[in-house]
Design goal:
The complex is a heterodimer of chains A (about 260) and B (about 525).
Chain A: E1 2-11, E2 14-24, E3 29-33, H1 40-47, E4 55-60, E5 63-64, H2 70-75, E6 77-81, H3 92-102, H4 107-120, H5 137-149, E7 155-159, H6 167-184, E8 187-192, H7 195-201, E9 204-209, E10 212-217, H8 219-223, H9 229-250
Parallel strand pairs in A: 3-8, 3-9, 6-7, 7-8
Antiparallel strand pairs in A: 1-2, 1-4, 4-5, 9-10
Chain B: H1 2-43, H2 45-60, H3 63-85, H4 94-118, H5 122-130, H6 135-165, H7 178-186, H8 190-219, H9 223-246, E1 253-258, H10 261-276, E2 281-287, H11 289-297, E3 303-307, H12 308-315, H13 324-339, E4 342-350, E5 353-358, H14 359-365, H15 370-376, E6 381-384, H16 392-401, E7 407-410, H17 413-422, E8 427-431, H18 435-439, E9 442-444, E10 456-461, H19 469-475, H20 484-495, H21 503-514
Parallel strand pairs in B: 1-2, 6-7, 6-8
Antiparallel strand pairs in B: 3-10, 4-10, 5-8, 5-9
The chains are: A alpha/beta (about 260), B alpha/beta (about 525).
């Protein structure tokens, strides 16, 4: 579904990404994991052409990127990011309708689609009339997701989508999105620096360091005794936390 | 006093309409140029810095100078157009004012436009790009709506500046509310000055408030405010412009004048005589001295009054003084040959630099001419206006008569006359047609050696009108018709401190006094 070959990006003479090669099959949920400056966001944005690669090739759905203008490619790919970027001068309904309008849908179809999407992201329908400023952070991110999904993309790119939310909302939204991913048969690529989030949501974790792939495997494979020391130390924290939580749950209760 | 208010109200519809037409056109053109430029500048740093720098640079030019600079530029372009395409255009009046004001309005629109577009929340811009909007879609659906309040604030600033600066269009021949101010300053008619300032400030404030309503409507997303503001602007502009629609269309006569009372009076006199023949007449007042002749030669004004000495030195570039008759004869033939301009004839009085004394004092000393004065000069004080002592006329006079005064002092004209009355000065430099000569009982000393060049007032007619019998017929009776005493009296009624007349009223009085024609009021 997504095929990156020797992808390279250079900023100010310094190699930010690459050469990086990665193939993501249809239906997979991939987390790009790494600390800040590891090149994960740059890699994500090169997939939908928000950043132009300096070398290498991107293929989306079998067609090489560059065969069509980048804005047409972007209309077929959902894009969600931490700041959400809802348009403050449009109501929630209008925000969700932007993608379908760009795709040239008819008005009745757009109206029923916005209702459907509010249901899908578990928001009450009457919210549609409001402006983004009248919503909570979690609600805004749900609208951001609804907007990205509105035109029916097969691929979703997400850049720290839950990064600005409180832990409970974050967990809620993460699980809800995972369900949507499965139900709609999406291919998802999520950038995150949160190891626990990557472990709990993704089918496959690609660890990036200094613009190159350090590790690539399922959450189980990475948690098992992975040969690379950096990856091992990365997985150490969530494992220890999980063991302590488990110990607490099993321990006999006092009083 | 009441007369002056009434006179101000009478011309208000025309001045206001012209002012609004000019301001609205300049602002519309300014927005049409600056907004696309602001968009380009916000997208591209290579456009941003030069355009902002250019607009700032224009802003540093004083607005009056900017307006004045466009006239010679357009005149040259018009001449080029004539030689290349056989077609020139009007270089005086509306066009130079429009261009200068347009340039002047650009900076606030451009600067706020760039700041507004570049200040749009980057998350909204990234979302727009991520969703697959093209650059144009992003601009129209996201950036412009979000930047609108800031852009509108810039347009507001530009509107206030433009309406204020439009008063400066008067000296390049465009009627505006500035006509009140310039005419008022020149004739010390403070009612007019006040009226002009008040009207232009009121217009600017109303426009600002209505635009402010639109701006707050945009900021608070309240459409009714935008509609009310927009409707108010539209209705106001149409109401102000309505006198233009009913104005006589078609080629009318244009009479010009320079920027002092005598010129305004003569211009009114010529205009009323032309109007008496049923013609439609426009007046372009307060022209600069050099501008007036060029405008006449280019056919932008049809007639005005100039002075032989001025034409002799400034147009023909001569420094000698071959005597009144020769100067007049040579001017008549040379202006015709050079520019096709017709010198219709002298009006009958002179407005020259002259030396004047109180009549009683001159009589006591037995002084009639400057030659008599030379003998007494060593005991006398000379008072002059600020310019006289550095002019060639003074050098010529001093050399011709060997004048050596005890003291030479420069004054503001008003104070110069006061100094003479108080005895602080014994002799002053005066203009021979100044109304105060008669009023203050002064005598002008004769110049038997003809050291001072003649400054006969003459009527000039533009090349396009030399065959126009209606114009020539209306103006020819003025040749030789106004003696210096009549002109002085008329000038005095406008220049005096109390009980002032407007130039139009003075012209009507003058017409009655010289008994030629029946100019209507």
């Amino acid at each position: 579904m997504i095929e990156l070959t020797d992808l390279t990006k250079i900023y100010g003479g310094r190699r930010a990404v690459g050469p990086l090669s990665l193939t993501i099959p249809k239906g997979q949920f991939v987390a790009l994991l790494g600390g800040s400056g590891c090149g994960k966001t740059t890699t994500l944005k090169m997939i939908n052409g928000l950043i132009t690669p300096d070398g290498g090739a991107v293929k989306v759905g079998g067609a090489p990127a560059g065969e069509e203008p980048p804005h047409l490619l972007r209309r077929r790919i959902g894009y969600v990011f931490q700041e959400v970027g809802l348009f403050p001068h449009m109501t929630i309904d209008e925000n969700i309708a932007v993608g379908p309008k760009l795709a040239g849908w008819e008005r009745p179809r757009i109206t029923s689609r916005t209702q459907e999407l509010l249901d899908l992201v578990a928001l009450p329908n009457e919210l549609g009339e409001r402006l983004p400023s009248g919503l909570s952070g979690g609600q805004r991110q749900r609208v951001g997701m609804a907007r990205a999904l509105a035109a029916g993309p097969r691929i979703m790119l997400m850049d720290e989508p839950f990064g600005a939310l409180d832990p409970i909302t974050r967990d809620d939204l993460g699980r809800d999105y995972r369900m949507l991913h499965d139900r709609l048969g999406l291919t998802s690529v999520m950038v995150t620096h949160d190891v626990m989030e990557a472990l709990l949501l993704a089918d496959r974790i690609v660890v990036l360091d200094k613009g190159a792939i350090l590790a690539d495997g399922s959450p189980g494979e990475l948690l098992a005794d992975y040969p690379d020391p950096i990856v091992r130390s990365l997985m150490e924290t969530p494992r220890r936390q999980a063991e302590r939580v488990e110990a607490l749950i099993r321990a006999p209760r006092h009083g | 006093m009441d007369d002056r208010w009434a006179a101000a109200w009478r011309v208000a519809p025309d001045y206001l309409a012209q002012h609004v037409l000019l301001s609205v056109s300049a602002l519309a053109l300014g927005v049409a140029i600056s907004l696309p430029l602001a968009v380009a500048a916000s997208r591209n740093a290579a456009v941003r810095w030069p355009s902002l720098f250019g607009a700032s640079l224009i802003q540093t030019i004083p607005s009056l100078a900017l307006l004045a600079l466009f006239y010679p530029l357009l005149l040259a372009l018009s001449a080029l157009g004539k030689t290349w395409f056989g077609h020139g255009f009007q270089a005086l009046g509306f066009l130079p004012s429009l261009l200068a004001l347009t340039l002047y309005s650009m900076l606030p629109i451009l600067r706020n436009g760039v700041a507004g577009i570049m200040g749009v929340d980057h998350a909204a811009v990234e979302a727009a790009r991520g969703m697959g909007m093209t650059s144009l879609q992003r601009l129209i659906r996201v950036e412009l709506p979000l930047a609108a309040p800031v852009i509108m604030a810039g347009i507001r600033t530009a509107a206030v500046w433009t309406i204020g600066a439009a008063t400066l269009a008067t000296p390049v021949g465009q009627t505006s509310l500035g006509n009140y101010i310039f005419l008022g300053l020149q004739t010390e008619n403070w009612v007019f000055v006040l009226f002009g300032c008040g009207a232009s400030a009121g217009l600017a404030l109303c426009t600002d408030q209505l635009l402010g309503l639109i701006e707050s409507g945009l900021t608070q997303r309240r459409p009714w405010r935008m509609w009310v503001g927009g409707a108010g602007l539209l209705v106001g502009a149409l109401a102000a412009l309505s006198p233009l629609a009913s104005a006589t269309v078609g080629r009318s006569y244009v009479v010009g004048s320079k920027n002092f009372s005598e010129q305004s009076i003569l211009s009114e006199l010529m205009a009323s005589r032309l109007e008496a023949t049923g013609a439609h007449v426009q007046q372009k007042q307060d022209l600069g001295s050099a501008t007036a002749y060029r405008a006449l030669a280019a056919g932008e004004i049809d007639a005005y009054v100039d002075y032989t000495g001025t034409l002799w030195t400034n147009v023909l570039d001569r420094r000698d003084n071959p005597g009144r008759a020769v100067v007049l004869r040579e001017l008549t033939s040379n202006l015709k040959r050079r520019d096709g301009v017709m010198l219709l004839g002298p009006i009958g009085f002179e407005n020259a630099y002259a030396l004047a004394m109180r009549a009683d004092r001159a009589k006591a000393l037995g002084i009639v001419t400057i030659a008599d004065l030379a003998a007494h000069a060593a005991d006398l004080n000379l008072g002059s206006d600020l310019e006289f002592l550095s002019r060639p006329e003074w050098t010529a006079l001093r050399n011709a008569y060997g004048l050596r005064f005890r003291k030479e002092t420069s004054y503001q004209p008003t104070f110069m006359y006061r100094a003479l009355a108080d005895g602080e000065a014994d002799v002053i430099s005066a203009f021979s047609s100044d109304g105060r000569i008669a009023a203050d009982h002064l005598i002008v000393l004769g110049d038997p050696r003809e050291a001072l060049p003649p400054y006969d007032a003459v009527i000039l007619v533009s090349p396009a009108r030399v065959e126009d019998s209606r114009l020539l017929g209306a103006l020819r009776p003025l040749v030789g018709a106004i003696p210096v005493a009549a002109m002085r009296a008329a000038n005095y009624t406008v220049d005096r401190d109390t009980d002032k007349l407007t130039p139009a009223q003075a012209a009507a009085d003058l017409a009655r006094r010289i008994g030629s024609g029946q100019p209507k009021q």
